[in-house]
Structure formats: structure tokens, C-alpha cells
Amino acid sequence: MAEREQIKKNSPPRDDSPGDDGGQTQVSGKGEELKAELDDLLDEIDEVLETNAEDFVKSYIQKGGQ
Amino acid sequence: MAVPKIIGIETEYGIMVRGSNDWNPVSASSLLINAYLGADGSGARNEKSAPIAWDFVDETPGADAREFLPLEFALPPEVETHLVNAVLTNGARYYVDHAHPEISTPECADALSVVLFDRAAEMIGVKSMEAARELLPPGQELVLYKDNSDRKGNAYGTHENYLLDRNLPFGQIVTGATWHFVSRQIFTGSGKVGSELPGVGAQQVPYQITQRAEHFEEEVGLETTLKRPIVNTRDEPHADSQRYRRLHVIVGDANIAQYATFLKVGTSALVFAMIEDGAMNLDREYDDPVRALHQVSHDLTLARPIALKGGRTITALEAQFDLLEQAEKYTAQRGFDNVGGDAVGRMILDTWSQVLTGLETDPDSVASKVDWVAKKRLLDGFRERHDCDWGDSRLRALDLQYHDMRPDKSLAARAGLDRLVNEADAQEAMTKPPEGTRAYFRGRCLEKFGDQVVAANWDSIVFDNGDEPLRRVPMMEPTRGTRAHVGTLLDESDTVAQLLEKLGS
To answer: ipTM value of the model?
Structure first.
């Protein structure tokens, strides 16, 4: 099975901080984690993305396919 | 009666020579494949140390599955026989098709095995690029893209193949397959920035679910390069034509997300088995299937109703949830024998359910499993960070680079996609055949007796056993020639003569 899915399934909400705002903290914590992950990803994309995007896109021509 | 769903995928890769303004895709594709075959023993060789050639005898890509031809029938597609065309020891075929390099996986006995050999095919592509680099002048590089469109109106295919019962009336296949092909796009799409339809701008379609949908203009037909049909009628079973049909599916996208490939072939195998067993509801049809295909691809909300014949409507998600329910009922009664057994069968149903639920409630939750969602997440993040609109060429570059097969450039490799098969197994599958189909016999023969194999194709191998005339061994039954059938026999044969004697041919 995929690691990512295992992590999701096996990490139920922590119940060591009960209270009305417990759930909300959990959600925003998860949201921030995802955002940080996406930020890292975007940093990496900025590094490896074609430097001359317009020429690259124009020159990508693939004739004669099925 | 449903027959075992033997499955394979053929992928035409996009190709570019970077660092040169003067290159030709046919030569580049030949160079790529020759570089791979020359790099090591991964392509089997005969005694002249030439790659073992594909055998074109009996190939009839122009045969039509319909019993009559429409008045304005299309000409059969031409077959290029003089270009590089090799058989690999994993049972796959690696060749130049039109102006693209193409890898056909070996025949696989279940959807998970397809994912493994599709990943192995990607690795063969990566290794080919590395080998080609050694042969090109400094500053030039040959690059592969696993996608289906240059975004300028040119498309190239990722074709699926399924073994079907010959007795099933083709009309039922058309009805059932069309129902699935139009709606399954919500998890098979690889995503595309913009539209290739004339006059459709970024305002109307900034981003869409699939790469292929817009390149389809017909409901049913023989063509694969022009006026592509949703259901392709090529009738070339590569097997006993009295018993079997091979359904050649040309309407899907190339997937990099392994879960998407798994679901694409797994759900389709189940749907075809249901049609064969009379267990699929064929009473409903889209009013205009081609329009529906385009509409689903353009609808990122997944909620737009599709018009049905007779005036009712359905959404793609509803159609898929309904198919899932039918499949659950069908397999509860009939089991999973025809789709590769219990473990894989249950996994198809579970994944199907999980992905549909994710798409319905929060599409981002399946960003690790569905390509169009994974790519959209990158595009949305990039747009927000750089404050750019959908017409920005950087977004178009990102869209293309998602499919770049170079590990140091691939954006798909960075998108957090979940894996279903492990990399070491896929590495092994570059040279070892699957064990559950006739591909096992083909691959093992090439590996063990490669110097005496003159030619091979899907349904036969030709041996040169010295002084005798050439001997053709037919393999008309795709479910035979497995490790269980011929493993011991191959192990115990030291020569082709012994093998042929044991086979009794």
C-alpha cells in the first residue's frame, strides 16, 4: 500500500488536547503542513522549470501520432 | 461468458532532441531504441547480434470488428515494417511507430501487473535516453515525454488492449464501453492547460481533465490517426479468432500516477467482464457521446449533467458510482476470477470507491492518485505564487514538463504521487516477463535461446534450429505459456531441439 495513504489512515486526530477548539487546531495544523509541503514543491519547480518557457512551449511539436 | 481479462498497454512517447534545430522524429526514435538495445543485454539478440525482429506475418490492423463496413469506410492504417522493431526479454515490444517511439507492455494477467510493466516501460525509456546521450554530439539531448498531445492539435496514443469473448455482439461492447469511457475520464485524465479546439480560448477552458478527449470526433470506427472514434473497431485478436476478440481502446490518456493506470485498466476489465456476462445495464446511452466526451473533459466541477437519449441526464460521477455499484453486485455473485483473482479484484473496487468519494467531496484529497488533480495542484500553487493568469507560457511549460521523463526534470516525479509497485520490482520487470500469460514463454525463450530466435510476435515465435527448416511455434492462447505451464519445461530444456521436442511441435 502507498505510504501516504497509510499515514492518513493510521493517524487519527490526537485526543490528548480535548476541548472545543481541539478539532480546529487539528485542521489548521494539517492545512499548514500541506501548504508548507506545496511551498517546498513550488521552490523546486522554480528551480527546474524550463528557463525559456515560451520557446520551449512553441518548439514542442509532435506530428504523426495515432 | 466472461473470459480472463488479459491486458496490455501501448504507449507512444512524445520525443524531442534538445540542443538541435535540425532533427527528425523518426530518426531520433530509431536512435533512441537502438541506443537502448546496444547498451546491454536488455534486448535479446540473435547470433548475428542483431535485435530480434518483430514478425509481421498475420498482422491485419485494417480488419474491422463490425460485420459490415460503413459506406465511407476508412482506409486501413499503414504498418511501418522497415523501422526499428524489437522484442524484449520481458515480453514487450519496443519500436518506432509513425514518428514516435512506442513501448507495448507484455500481456498481463491483472491490473497490478499492468502497472508494474508500465513502470518498467518508463524505466526502459529513461535508460534509453541515457544511452542515447552517449551517441549524440555534446550539447544535444534526446528527451521523452509521457503525454498524448503537443497542445497544438497533434495527438499520439496510449492504447489499452483487453481480451474479450468473440461471441459477444459488438453492439453491446459499443454501448457499454462508451458509457464507461466517457465517464471514467474523471480519474483517467492527465490534465491539460487550455483547449485545442478551434476558437476555444483560455477564458472558456483554462484547464481540462484529459489530453485526448478533444481529439475524438466519431463514436465508432477503424481510424486511429484521423477522425478518431471513442470505440475503435480494429479486429486483430493476436489470438485464436474463433474464441477471442482484442478490444483496442484508443481513447485513454497516458498516466504517470500509478493509481490512475491501475484504475483505468482495472475498472475497464471489470466493466468488460460485466458486459460479457450480461450483468451491465445497457439501457442508457448518452445522447451525443462525442459531445459528452468533450464536456466531461472540460468540466472541472464534475457536476455538469450529461444529456441521455430519452431526455434524462446524469453526471460523470453519478455514472461512475452507478457502475461501481453494478460491479460490486456482479463480483459478489461471480467473484474476481476473470480480473486476476480476489486480492487484485477487491483492490480495484476499494480504490475505485475511495477515488470517486474523494473526487466528490474534495478532489485535492486524490492529488496523489489522479494525474489531472496532481497537476492542477501544481498549476494553482504556481499561479498564486507568481500571480499569473492561465495564458502565461510558464503554466504551459509546467503542463508539458509534468510529463518529462528525465528524473531530474520530471515534475510528476515531484508531485507526491503514491506508488503501487516498488521500484526494485519494476527494475526487474525491465528484463523479466510476467508469469501469468504467454508473455512468460516469449520472454524466457528470448532470454534463454535468443541466438536461435529468428523472429517473434504476439502469437508466435520462429526458431532456427540449425539444419532443419525454420520452426514456428504458435501461441494462439494468451492464457497459456505461463510459468505454471511451461516453467519447468523451459528450465529443463538446454537446447531449442529439446524445447521443441518437449513441446511436441
So the answer is: 0.91
Task: Tell whether B448 is covered by a domain.
Answer: no
**Among partner residues B97, B100, B418, which is closest to A2 by beta-carbon distance?**
B418
pLDDT < 70 positions in chain B: 40-50, 67-82, 505
User: Parallel, antiparallel, or unpaired: how do β-strands B100-104 and B93-97 relate?
Assistant: antiparallel
- Are A45 and B156 a contacting pair at CB < 8 A? no
| Close Cβ partners of B209 (under 8 Å, ≥ 6 residues apart) | B185, B186, B189, B191, B296, B297, B298, B299, B300, B372
> Residue B177's closest CA among B280, B263, B105, B266?
B280
Kindly state the cell numbers that stand for B428.
Answer: 526487474
The total domain count for chain B is 1
Q: Which of A42, A53, A60 sits opposite B150 (nearest CB)?
A: A60
pLDDT at B57: 74
Nearest CB neighbour to B397, from listed A3, A50, A62: A50
* Any domain includes B371: yes
Are the CB atoms for B397 and A57 separated by under 8 Å? yes
**Is A64 within 8 Å of chain B by CB?**
yes
Domain limits at B31? 7-427
Is B455 a domain residue?
no
3-state secondary structure labels for all residues of B340-378: CCHHHHHHHHHHHHHHHHHHHHCHHHHCCCCHHHHHHHH
Taking the Cβ of residue A51 and every Cβ of chain B, the question of whether any pair is shorter than 8 Å is answered with no
The pLDDT score that the predictor gives to residue B265 is: 98
pLDDT at residue A4 greater than cutoff 80: no
CA distance, residue A1 to nearest chain B CA (Å): 6
> Under an 8 A CB cutoff, do A48 and B100 touch?
no
Q: Where residue B320 sits, what CATH number does that domain have?
A: 3.30.590
The reply to whether B410 falls in a domain is yes
Selected residue of A1, A55, A60, A61 to mutate for chain B interface (largest B Cβ count, 10 A): A60
